[in-house]
Specification:
alpha/beta, Rossmann fold, Helicase, Ruva Protein, domain 3, 4 domains, five-stranded parallel beta sheet, 14 strands, 12% strand, globular, binds adenosine-5'-triphosphate, binds magnesium ion
């Protein structure tokens, strides 16, 4: 919960009321800010963290309802309490319909006013406040509207103990989201266990997930708990669930239905108390239609779904991420301050980031190490990203064509540099083997390549 007092902004053109309200709110322990008109009110909102807005419906020169509309669009997380001297039922109904938190008359007694303000402030805390704290705690950077919305959903979903399916391209931050769900749930003091479903064959996967008993196979000289047991009381993340072999999917479904596991070689089933999260960068609907994923398992797993958008759809996060990774790299490699030239930032802003945040993170690490005179220039960024700067070439016709030609160029070069070894190429690109493999296939670049996982 927040340590500083909540900041309440009230906008009213009557000075007497402003003075009275300041006194009431300050006495109740709030930090009160006031404005006599909406222009000033808006300036305050743009420069200060306001938790609740108290707004006069009949502001001189402004319609309170217009202001309310603006707030819903621009500051959706700040609850707005409307009030008026002459309350009409219609105005109240309309204001609440437009999303006002509550509607009061100016003659309202102080107690009722303060209760309303407190409830509204707590509402802010539950959405934005908790989300800010969580974001800082879990190292999730990004203030774009889509990331804010993601965190607002996340703080609601985390405490429910339900299964969550986390989708999104490789490198978008699904792992962080999963850890945050665990960290914001009642299970936070127990283990968070992660298992990748890509590499497991059915039999290995069964032992890995559910454990085995001594003597169940030649090398089993003792009982071995599986990942489910290790996550007892906590959370299990099944990463890359889309790649799980079909027979193992059937076993997993049974466990999710019964809450019991059956270790290999065991005679009895064992109860487990584990919250299962699943992550994938695959289109599971597509996997279902080509017969490689069970539809009933998908329905089980996606009680809630959180989609982490690709970085190219939230370019406004690039700047903040850049600063974050810059600071991290400077600390990690014990460097002096490093600056990025505006041209360098521009190059990053216009790049489509096929490897998403992970690609940006690795780029910054490389650039920090290689930077000359502690300055990162546009040329450095373009070179590291493998971008061509041929000014004479015609502009690309459309985004998808440009993306495809970039990807073809990029992956061709990547393969060239890594002697056609997909594993090495994947590591260098900061992408998963499966992602690179699928991309190469899609781009028609897969030939007689070394297919080593
Ligand atoms: N919003 C973010 N703020 C800060 N760091 C981030 C953010 N999103 C991702 N990262 C960093 O980018 C890297 C990749 O993130 P993460 O492993 O969570 O991606 P992922 O979606 O699980 O990818 P994959 O599908 O390849 O497993 C990590 O080092 C992570 O810390
Ligand atoms: Mg991951």
């Amino acid at each position: 919960m927040s340590k500083l007092p909540y900041c309440i902004l009230f906008v009213d053109d009557e000075e007497v009321i402003r003075r009275r309200m300041t006194k009431t709110l300050e006495t109740a322990g709030y930090h009160a800010l006031s404005a006599s008109n909406w222009t000033t009110g808006r300036q305050i909102l743009e420069t200060q963290q306001v938790h609740v807005l108290l707004l006069d419906l009949n502001l001189r020169g402004f319609s309170g309802l217009e202001v309310l509309r603006w707030m819903k669009e621009q500051r959706p997380s700040v609850p707005v309490i409307m009030y008026t001297g002459v309350g009409t039922i219609e105005a109240a109904v309309l204001a609440v319909k437009l999303g006002a938190y509550d509607f009061l008359e100016k003659s309202v007694d102080i107690e009722k006013l303060l209760v309303t303000v407190r409830n509204a402030a707590e509402k802010w805390e539950l959405t934005e406040g908790l989300s800010n704290a969580a974001r800082a705690q879990f190292g999730l950077i990004g203030d774009s509207a889509s990331m804010k919305k993601l965190w607002q959903d996340l703080v609601k979903i985390a405490p429910t103990d339900e299964h969550v399916l986390i989708t999104g391209e490789s490198g978008t931050g699904k792992d962080i989201v999963a850890r945050a769900i665990h960290g914001l749930s009642r299970r936070r003091s127990s283990n968070f266990v992660r298992v990748t479903c890509t590499v497991v064959t059915e039999s290995l996967g069964t032992s890995e997930l559910f454990g085995y008993k001594k003597g169940s196979h030649a090398k089993a000289d003792r009982d071995e708990p599986g990942r489910f047991k290790m996550a007892e009381g906590g959370t299990l993340l099944l990463d890359e669930i889309g790649d799980m072999p079909l027979p193992l999917q059937a076993k997993l479904l049974t466990v999710l239905q019964t809450g019991e596991i059956e270790p290999v070689g065991g005679r009895v089933t064992e109860k487990v108390d584990v919250r299962v999260l699943a992550a994938t960068n695959r289109d599971l609907k597509q996997r279902i239609s080509d017969g490689s994923f069970r539809e009933d398992l998908l329905y089980r797993l996606e009680t809630f779904r959180i989609h982490v958008p690709p970085l190219r759809e939230r370019k406004e996060d690039v700047r903040a991420l850049l600063e974050f990774f810059l600071t991290n790299s400077i600390r990690r490699y014990n460097l002096s301050t490093i600056t990025v030239e505006p041209g360098g930032v521009e190059a990053m802003m216009s790049y489509p980031w096929p490897g998403n945040v992970r690609e940006l993170e690795r780029l910054i690490m490389r650039l920090c190490i290689l930077a000359e005179d502690s300055i990162i220039k546009r040329g450095d960024v373009e070179r590291e990203l493998g971008l061509q700067t041929d000014e004479t070439s015609p502009p690309p016709s459309g985004y998808s064509t440009a993306k495809k030609s970039f990807e073809t160029e990029y992956f061709n070069r990547l393969l060239q540099v890594h002697a056609n070894n997909i594993s090495a190429a994947s590591r260098a690109a900061g992408l998963h083997y499966t992602t690179v493999h699928a991309k190469l296939k899609e781009l028609g670049l897969i030939g007689n390549l070394q297919d080593t996982a």
